[in-house]
């Protein structure tokens, strides 16, 4: 029987970098030129099938990028297994904002969280302000995954989520993970064959 796991994933980044469009492309393979800004956070799910037959279900929290919602972010990245921090390749300031989100995750999220830095809007390469070299160098220095995507064309979108699924710990039981109490079920993938319900705290709605 193939193994099935579920993980909590959070998207962070400045407003208008395309986080919601990225998720919409991943979950529904759709793109909308006129998406309204997310209020608070949106919740979606999507499954990825790996080559070895393992199925990974992502519980995705798409957070709002506006500054007035920043204080809510810890509720969404708390106990997250992975994070996608998005910037707009046509706006260098959005990479600086992504750096600040990554610093916050490194300080406050679980130490074993998998972080991917994602440069969105690769279809607008003619207006590029952030070079691939600059972003990749930063990602390498910080030990992050990195990729460029286009939510509009779909380029690279499935690939980055699949890469994250492959990077997540799919085999280590909670007792085998370092970090003591913090390495409990909320941080380890839930084997859906054995435990159909999400681990406590992993899929609880936030009272926002």
Entry summary:
This protein is α/β, with parallel strands linked by helices and 208 residues long.
List keywords for this structure.
single chain; cell membrane; 208 residues; membrane; disordered C terminus; alpha/beta; GTP-binding protein RAB5; Rossmann fold; 7 strands
Structure, described:
With 208 residues, the chain is an alpha/beta fold. It has one domain: P-loop containing nucleotide triphosphate hydrolases (Rossmann fold, 3-Layer(aba) Sandwich), CATH 3.40.50. Helix content is 26%, strand content 23%. Strands 1, 2, 3, 4, 5, 6 and 7 form a 7-stranded mixed sheet that branches. A hairpin with a 5-residue loop joins strand 2 and strand 3. It is globular, with a radius of gyration of 16 Å. The C terminus is likely disordered. It is a lipid-anchor. It comes from Meripilus lineatus. This is GTP-binding protein RAB5.
Order of helices and strands, N to C? EHEEHEHEHEHE
The biggest sheet, with number of strands, parallel, antiparallel or mixed sense and barrel status, is: 7 strands, mixed
How many beta-strand segments? 7
Strand content: 15-25%
Label the structural class: alpha/beta
- Gross geometry: globular
Report the total helices.
Answer: 5
Q: Mean pLDDT, rounded to whole units?
A: 82
Overall radius of gyration: 16 Å
Q: Assign the CATH topology.
A: Rossmann fold
CATH architecture: 3-Layer(aba) Sandwich
Overall tally of structural domains: 1
